[in-house]
Amino acid sequence: MPAQVDLILRGGTILTLDRDLRVLEDRAIAIDGGRILDIFDPRAKQYAARQEIDTANCILMPGLINAHSHLPMTYFRGLADDLPLETWLRDYIWPLEAKLMKHEFIGQAALHGAAEMIKNGITQVQDMYFDMPAIAAACSQAGLRAIIGEAVLEGNGSAEQARPALGEKVLELRQSFAADPLLDFNLAPHSIYACSEKTLVQVAKVAAEHGILLHMHLAETRGEVRDCLKEHGLKPVHYLQKVGILELPAVYAHGVWTDPDEIGLMAANPASVAICSDSNLKLASGILPLAEYQRQGVNLCFATDGVASNNNLDLLAEIDLTAKLHKALNSDPAFLPAARAVQMATLDAAKALGVADRRGSLEPGKDADICVLSLAGLECQPVYNPYSHVVYTLGAKQVRDVVIAGEIVLRQGRLAKVDEAELVETAKSWKQRILKELG
Amino acid sequence: MPAQVDLILRGGTILTLDRDLRVLEDRAIAIDGGRILDIFDPRAKQYAARQEIDTANCILMPGLINAHSHLPMTYFRGLADDLPLETWLRDYIWPLEAKLMKHEFIGQAALHGAAEMIKNGITQVQDMYFDMPAIAAACSQAGLRAIIGEAVLEGNGSAEQARPALGEKVLELRQSFAADPLLDFNLAPHSIYACSEKTLVQVAKVAAEHGILLHMHLAETRGEVRDCLKEHGLKPVHYLQKVGILELPAVYAHGVWTDPDEIGLMAANPASVAICSDSNLKLASGILPLAEYQRQGVNLCFATDGVASNNNLDLLAEIDLTAKLHKALNSDPAFLPAARAVQMATLDAAKALGVADRRGSLEPGKDADICVLSLAGLECQPVYNPYSHVVYTLGAKQVRDVVIAGEIVLRQGRLAKVDEAELVETAKSWKQRILKELG
Questions:
Q1: Which of B220, B216, B224 is nearest to B193 (CA)?
Q2: Is there a contact between A116 and B379 if contact means CB atoms under 8 Å apart?
Q3: Which residue of B has its CA nearest to A430?
């Protein structure tokens, strides 16, 4: 008698991202209890499913992992583009954050962003902002897996908490959301320039004591490096070493203005870099030395950054852009081939977040976090190489189904757990409020 | 009594791209005889339409113009990525072209590409390949407006025809397709390296004599410039001046490796450049000096290039990529603001093709070539600035309706004039044939 399972995805091309990077055709994925139970030949009929999705003519891949974002900024999408960073922050973002960033705004904007990520094939995000419980509730509601970090910076009270109450806070949140397998929490010292040395030392101590992953902006702009040298007499990565952060598992967003010496130090420590190409280009921050990071063996993954500097939450677009951009910069069309780029967006991102034993590939025993890309449209044909297709041809338009922790959260492009029309109306009303605040 | 018109698009945000770059809300567009008759207040009820589309909650803009492509290469999408250019050409593209490039292949691949462009909001293309009649029939069938150029290069007979039969051929095609308002033909000397000096001189003479627009690859790679200097003792643009091409209206694809001196010469002549950012990055050709072209006043527009080096025909993605990339390269987030980029993709492209009196903006009297972008999805909300939205937020996914010459060729994302499922099946069967040819 066939074994009962929760869900079967039947057919299509499966990019396993397993150790041998196997690509499987005409197989089915059996999912039970939120995990992948088996990848099997569907003719064998050993499983009967409570629910089944026909994934013929699709590419199935591990859900995309977005390693750095700011979900509650979603309502600032395109609010003030094509402006110098200082103008954007001083005249728009900071005043709005001061006036609007209450629990309700954060929860609703985060819900909007979480739902948008799911529509774009993202199954896990690492977010950094304020009000972890509001963001957690939003991700849980949308069905998005998330590691949520409270941004620690001077002036808003979070830095005070860093000594040492913030560690307690993370542990408390882990406890209070323990029933939700989608959620985890970590520590997000904002950046070198937004945290005092004392705060960074404390955050490092707290993280080390409780084994908490760190998430931080690093070397995003040239100015940041200049200021670090001026204030601390050290390059950013050396300064991180001094305050005790570098030796700890951490994901650094941006990493644009690091030099080979710093990159060598990162490679010798448990550091990963979240590449934010769209944001870095749009804000004219610069372009990271990807080839040097690769040469020295630093673990790399992709991120959208916040929607306000992107202006979407489309990780497939980030992969495409990054792979192409660095081919040109390295004068080598063979640089960063497609399969490697897909690996960075999945398995290497899972490594960065310390969850590679549970996610980042489609293998029995791993969490059932799966992105299904449709090949039905003529713009997807013909298909010669599925990796190449994922990177260069397919986009948000082709994200058809998304499964997270075994639950179908997107089906035929429609969100399963939230009412999209309602989210659109809520966003429109917040827009009016935002415009009013700006006068 | 209201006047009868063919079609009314009612509601939404209209980016007119007119002289004052007016953005109109709550208006309607009356279309008759393939042209825009009026943009009016729909409450006035002065028109009655045989057909009407509700475009509330949409952005309406002039159809995108793709200034350089190779439609018949569509079946090579992703065939051989991440390879050095020489390997790609020598081991894949050239052998396949030699074996497969018959009338049937060209017609079907071009139809596939033309339909794909429409799905991406493109209303006019300038194409360069072999077998103009096959490409013309394909564009006509899909409903895509096209200027089709026969690639002139040594070795395939076209260069012989260039003296002077090719001019006659263009005039003949203009006559035989005169009943189809979508089609025009021009001359496409492939490149400096693929044409002899004699051929280029002849093409220039023919173009001048008959007033035919020229379409040519220029300075795509560093090697091309080096070879031109070696063989002709001149930089590419100076060489074009010598052979008589530079003084004629022409669209140059790529223009990556030109220097300020050459750019100055181009600015002093009727030269436009079609920017192919995706292709240039993916093939590692380089990045054009956009700021210098702008500074010296060269007319610029966007193009996808052929799908084989992209791997899609998505002009919205080209705009997004180019605007962001050059902000970073110029260390200025205010560089190439969104409204300017949209203008390049529409009005400036129409200027490049010599049709700005008829297309490139939404104004009474102009051709009804219109792209309607849906704002229904949550990933499109909120909207603060519609130009910024077109460039940074919206993509192929949001292209809902497309009107070309007053005819609805895409409605709710579905192609009106061709059977998409049939095109997909045809592409799949050509893929088998291609793989067989490659052994």
A1: B224
A2: yes
A3: B382
Report the distance separating Cα A114 and Cα A124, nearest Å.
9
Binned at pLDDT 50, 70 and 90, residue A86 comes out as confident
Ranges of chain B with pLDDT below 70: 156-164
Contact A424 B77 (CB under 8 A): no
Question: Is B213 in contact with B124 (CB distance < 8 Å)?
Answer: no
ipTM (interface pTM): 0.96
B198 to chain A, closest Cα gap in Å? 33
State the pLDDT at residue B157: 67
**DSSP notation for A350-389:** HHHTT-TTTSSS--TTSB--EEEEE--SGGG-S-S-HHHI
The reply to whether residue B379 touches residue A312, judged by beta carbons under 8 angstroms, is: yes
Mean pLDDT of A135-155: 94
What chain A residue is nearest to B339 in terms of C-alpha separation?
Answer: A82
Q: Phi first, then psi: what are they for A259, rounded to 5°?
A: -105, 170
Domains in chain B and their CATH numbers? 3-62+367-415 (2.30.40.10), 64-352 (3.20.20.140)
Contact (CB<8Å) A334/B116: no
Task: Kindly give, in sequence order, each residue whose CB lies less than 8 Å from that of residue A268, ignoring residues fewer than 6 positions away.
Answer: none
Distance CA A348, CA A272 (A): 9
Contact A220, A285 (CB under 8 A): yes
Chain A closest CA to B23's CA: distance in Å? 17
Q: What is the DSSP secondary-structure string of A94-139?
A: HHHHHHH-SHHHHHHHHHHHHHHHHHTTEEEEEEEES-HHHHHHHH
Residue from A378, A383, A412, A422 to probe the interface with B (highest B Cβ count within 10 Å): A378
Contact in structure between B175 and B135 (CB atoms under 8 Å): no
Sole residue written with tokens 């009943």: B179
Using an 8 Å CB-CB cutoff, list chain A residues near B285: 328
A-B contacts at Cβ under 8 angstroms: 208
Which of B284, B333, B431 has its CB closest to that of A85? Answer: B333
One-letter amino acid identity for A381? Q
Closest-CA residue of B relative to A396 is: B397
Please list every residue in chain B whose beta carbon sits closer than 8 Å to the beta carbon of residue A100: none
Comparing CA positions, the residue from B261, B342, B298, B292 lying closest to residue B62 is B342
Q: Nearest CA to CA, how far is A212 from chain B (Å)?
A: 32
Average pLDDT over residues A396-410: 98
Contact state of B75 with A282 under an 8 Å Cβ cutoff: no
Distance in Å from the first CA to the final CA of chain B = 68
CB B37 within 8 A of CB B31: yes
Q: What is the mean pLDDT of residues A241-262?
A: 98
The whole-angstrom separation of Cα A369 and Cα A64 is 9
Q: Which residues have C-beta within 8 Å of that of residue A152, sequence separation ≥ 6?
A: A158, A159, A161, A162, A166, A187, A188, A189, A190, A195, A199, A203
- Asked if the Cβ–Cβ distance from B424 to A120 is below 8 Å, we say no
Apex B321 CA angle, B320 and B322, nearest 5 = 95
Top residue of A71, A82, A392 to mutate, by most chain B CBs within 10 Å, is A82
Average confidence (pLDDT) over A352-359: 98
The residues, any chain, with a CB within 8 Å of residue B130's CB and separated by 6 or more, are: B72, B101, B106, B150, B151, B156, B158
**Cα angle A327-B94-B284, degrees, rounded to a multiple of 5:** 10
CA–CA dist A323, A198 (Å, integer): 39
pLDDT at B28: 97
Q: What is the pLDDT of residue A157?
A: 67
Decide: pTM greater than 0.90: yes
Mean pLDDT, chain A, rounded, equals: 95
Query: b vs e for A403-433, b when ≥16 Cβ sit within 10 Å of the residue's Cβ?
Result: bbbbbbbbeebebebbebeebbebbeebbee
